[in-house]
Amino acid sequence: MKLLRSxxxxxxxxxxxxxxxxxxCSQATVSLRIKSFxxxxxxxxxxxxxxxxxxxxxxKDLLPDAQIILxxxxxxxxxxxxxxVAGAVSLGIAEDYGEAFLSRLMRVIDSSFPGIELNVTCQxxxxxxxLLETRKLDLAIVTLPDKKSHSTLLSQPKLVWVCSxxxxxxxxxxxxxxxxxEGCAFRAAAEAALKREGHAYREVLTTxxxxxxxxxxxxxxxxxxxxxxxxxxxFAILSKETGLPDLPPSCIQLVEREDGLTKAAQQVKVSIKKxxxxxxx
Length: 281
What we know:
By secondary structure, the protein is of the alpha/beta class. It has helices at about 1-15, 15-25, 25-40, 55-80, 95-110, 125-135, 185-195, 210-220, 265-275; strands spanning about 45-50, 55, 85-95, 115-125, 140-145, 150-155, 160-165, 175-180, 200-205, 225, 235, 250-255.
């Protein structure tokens, strides 16, 4: 399972160093596991360059099944250790993070912990934080500028400027930005960077919907900001040669209500951390 877990972690992070942090081991150990796995399969799983780690064709084919195997393995272990767990759990997930992850979590909870009633709310991170503070949520996966108390750091992917594959840069015009509404950490980071370096920009779209932003960007008439490793098919990262400023890393975290969690909510928390390859220590 260590080889499979290392493969999924590197595929998720697109970075050996960050994958090692998630797994609680050294980068050299992760590299050795990936090499051993590739040698065992007789297939190259990643295309590597100095700055970039991407799945090969074989890696893309393997990833969905690898995730399912790990999910079922971890859920079975949790089920045998925890016994019967029941109760309602309210979970918030920021829309820019939950698209691929949510289906895996719901499948694991439904199949392994049928006594848990998982109720999911998808909104912007700042709104989810307020729902936590008013005790309307038990847990929330959010992207915020700083790490909160009673939280677990899930990932710190770099923010990148994103466009469609056929977007044409026109430096004579202000940058056409598609943004989430006020309060979004990605928006705040982008605006601060643009203003700091004196770049002219205009908001061609403001919305609370990630799908609407993707639609605008795919039209080739707008750019946006996303976390590295989360780009949809057909999107591309705008290079430094465009003159756009560097962006800071994001802070994706699992925040829990401050007055404590029920046993059911604790099990959902454990399941989330295992699905994302986060140490339970």
